[in-house]
Amino acid sequence: MDIDTLEQLREHYPPAQGRALSKQLDHLDPHCIAFIGLSPFAVLATGGAAGQLDASPRGGAPGFVQVLDRHTLLLPDAKGNNRLDSFSNIAETGRAGLLFMIPGVDETLRVNGEASLSDDAALLALFAGERNPPRLVMRLRVAEAYLHCAKALMRSRLWDSAAQVERSVLPSMGQMISDQTGGSATLESQAQMLARYAADL
Hints:
Layout: H1 6-10, H2 19-22, H3 30-38, E1 41-47, E2 53-59, E3 66-69, E4 72-76, H4 85-93, E5 95-102, E6 105-118, H5 121-125, E7 137-148, H6 151-156, H7 173-181, H8 190-198
Antiparallel strand pairs: 1-2, 1-5, 3-4, 4-7, 5-6, 6-7
């Protein structure tokens, strides 16, 4: 049977209690701020007005997402393919979530809230030292912030060197996309792609 109501869903799970509820904050406390400052990677989650969803990886030097104050985060744009899936969703709905990760740490940090895009010169100036300064900054007004337990990363062994997969087990990115699109252009090797990417990091 498909589960398509909250009542049906709750028949399978007991109510959340205790720390699972009390840990949720409506601001960034010192622990959240320290976690963000150490994080070089986050997943940006958004949804559009028509129901389209997107989860986009974002990365930079640790602390690439800046804490403006205990209620506000700033995520700089990064040079990419100009699809603008995430930013288009934000422009439509004004909502976003971020999942922060720190290499070697199994806990994660989730931050959700109201999102907006800005080309304000004062905000862009905060990222002027970047190799490729952003065109826009996403401003996230924090509604929910909470630490997420380590179970998922422990199960996946994400940071365990013994669980690492050799890149060669998959075809090159160029080969996979060519297969998916039916392209007939000269294929770019994985090494050529990495060299091209290096200029845009």
